[in-house]
Amino acid sequence: MKNLLGIVFSNMHEHMVSDLTPHRCMGSVPVGGRYRLIDFVLSTLANSGVEDVGVITKTNYQSLMDHLGNGREWDLSRKTGGLAILPPFSRTETGMYRGRIEALYGIMGYLRSSPATHVITCDCDMLFNTTYDDMLLSHVETGADITVMYKKMPLIGEVSKDTCVLSVEENGRVRDVMVAPPLSGEQNVYLNIMIISKSLLEYLVSSCFSRNQYSFERDILQAGARQYHINAYEYTGYISRFSSLQTYYDANLALLDSEVRSQLFPREMPIYTKVRDEAPVRYGLGSKVSNSLLADGCVVEGEVENSVLFRGVTVGKGAKVKNSVIMQGTTIGEGSSLEWVMTDKNVTVRESRMLTGFQTYPVYIAKGSVI
Amino acid sequence: MLKLNKKKWIAMILAGGQGSRLLSLTKRLAKPAVPFGGKYRIIDFTLSNCVNSGIDTVGVLTQYQPLLLNEYIGNGQPWDLDRVHGGVFVLPPYQQSSGSDWYTGTANAIYQNLQFIQRYDPDYVLILSGDHIYKMDYSKMLKFHRQHQADCTIATLEVPRHEADRFGILASDEEGRITSFEEKPAQPKSNMASMGIYIFSTKTLVRYLEEDALDDASSKDFGKNIIPAMLGSGARLFAYPFEGYWKDVGTIDSLWEANMDLLDPSMPLDLGDPQWRIYARNAVRPPQYVGRDAVVQNSIVTEGAEIYGEVDFSVLFAGVVVEPGATVRDSIVMPGTVIRSGAVVDYAIIAEGCEIGRGARVGSRPEDTPDKSLWGVTVIAEGVTVAPGAVVPAKAVVDGDWNIGSAVVLDAPEPAEKEAGEVVRA
């Protein structure tokens, strides 16, 4: 799809999982044993044949750049186009962007120089897998100005300020857009994935910028719902969105369900990620592993149950890890016991330590901690 | 003037061998491309050693079933061998104005690619085999070669006396200078064996290869012709002692053993060493999943595998599925193979993309086999389906679908030691 340009917002929604994002952006939050959140977005774009992708960054994007490299793993290392990392484009009138519109205004040069006719924008706050061929077709066939992807899902508890709910007419046209509405029950939740013609996007961004408007959701989708033809496209596959540390934890453990894995990782739509050349997992004498997901580089000599082990995790003899999410490079010493725990990268749990959280309140241990 | 393409040294990997002693495993792919150790192929070890030793230009000489090996090596990126100046090159035999020829021996394979070597004008050429499992820092060997102002340095290893007749056996003086070399001697004088790893000073190499090419009686082999010729004319040949794990995986038994060696925690070949990684072209797969009632011990398993049954002392490759109630012990299961419920696999090597049906039995345990002469590792070739309930006995080699009552072919005939066109290890 040479005619489609992908734009990925790598920083949106970081405040939702602020524990995980003091030193990294949303896109580089580790997930699912061997991935970063941006892998899902980039892989869906690559699997849809999108060959030009710009990644908008704001802060803490060093780990993201390290992860992405030149985009080769996603087949986005191209002579013309391919992956472009777009650092904050600072100049006096924009400064650090406040919202999508200003971020897009900052990359106007990149947008203008693209030969694409349409733009698809995505965020990095969810696990999902799809291709965009159908959505683009729907956009073209309906003659819409903007096509937004949504999913019917229940809203529970307080609705976060990052949640947009669409009210959709029978013909699929969006009648209203509500930002963080006081609603509950099953709603049409906007997934922050949108297709728009490049010329309209350029026009809207410039015109909003001139009015000091910066929120795409409020100033374009909400304000323009009657003026523009906004077409709603339903995503029916598996999704988990990260709106808190708890949902992040739940999303990782949800991968233990084979039905979830088969929807997220079908053979014909692989999720690509950076190759780290770790050795295969070594299961030692007396290791006891059940209902767990393990990435390469792990060495297991103890017990692991209902857990996700990222790359290069070591579980010592007699150690027990249960209902936990253990990120890359964590070492769990002999005889230690962890239950309802999330460790960030490179945590060292020394011998005979006991850590216990609760299902609805998992203990989070910051990157590099020694216990 | 800086010559960008001038290299201190380059490596030439002999990867043309059919590996006929690996029987059906090498029916459709060359021996260096045989999967090994969960996520690798055999040649990954040599390629990774090259890169980790600081070599950036590598020629891979192929001739038998090169398709998969070509595809696998590709542009060399997984080994960091996609370089602006140099990199990895697959070198099949080609047609020249003087005619064309298969590689008729190890020396001939290098001789036919002298032009490739000369393009990089290296001071030294490292000759390697693509079918050994080991970690070795060739830069130490090069240092040794330069210190001794050698014309040729041969890496050596002490082998058990009773196996010495399988190798090129050499003797050296106190300084390390080689005094005699015998290829596969009936009566070995020592147990110092050539590993088939040579460093030549380029000028010497070119001279001896050109002289050897004119000799119609020569079998164009490093061990049989080049090395003896150099010794005969008083060239400076030195033996470089290698210490560490090294295995030639040329037979079913040695391939099985080398995989099993990886399961030993005290093994000196540490795959996880961040200072000396073994690189491979990775499968794009999700992490491995171990099911609720699974039992996995003493094994190595890689990405995409799903284990619901019992796995002990085994090596499982990408995407292998072991269904509930299935048992895999002391076995090697290559990418994408499915072991159905209730199947039992013992002492077997199962190649890529096979299906072992429900309740089938593949291989047997030595303790369950009264007549030990009938026992051995069972081999299931690529893409074979073993029918539900079928029994494949020990030592069988199966390269077509296997049903209940299929005829047992025990003890596949010993193939000739060297086949026409096969590049053998010196």
Please provide a written account of the structure.
The complex is a heterodimer of chains A (371) and B (426). Chain A has helices spanning 37-47, 62-68, 100-106, 108-113, 133-142, 198-210, 216-222, 245-254, 258-264, and strands at 4-9, 30-31, 35-36, 52-56, 82-86, 118-123, 126-128, 146-155, 164-168, 174-179, 185-197, 230-234, 239-241, 281-283, 288-290, 292-294, 299-300, 303-305, 308-309, 314-315, 320-322, 325-326, 331-332, 337-339, 341-343, 348-349, 354-356, 363-365. By secondary structure, chain A is of the alpha/beta class. In chain A, the strands form 6 sheets. In chain A, strands 1, 4, 5, 6, 8, 9, 10, 11 and 12 form a 9-stranded mixed sheet that branches. Chain A has a 5-stranded parallel sheet with strand order 14-17-20-23-26, with no helix packed on it. The longest helix of chain A is centred in the middle third of the chain and has 13 residues, at 198-210. The radius of gyration of chain A is 21 Å and the shape is globular. The model of chain A has no long low-confidence stretch (mean pLDDT 93). Chain B has a 7-stranded mixed sheet. A 6-stranded parallel sheet of chain B has the order 16-19-22-25-28-31, with no helix packed on it. In chain B, a hairpin with a 3-residue loop joins strand 2 and strand 3 (40-41). The A-B interface holds A 32-34, 72, 256, 258, 261, 264-265, 270-272, 275, 277-297, 299, 304, 308-309 and B 37-39, 77-78, 265, 271-272, 277-280, 282, 284-303, 306, 311, 315. Strand 14 of chain A pairs antiparallel with strand 18 (299-301) of chain B.
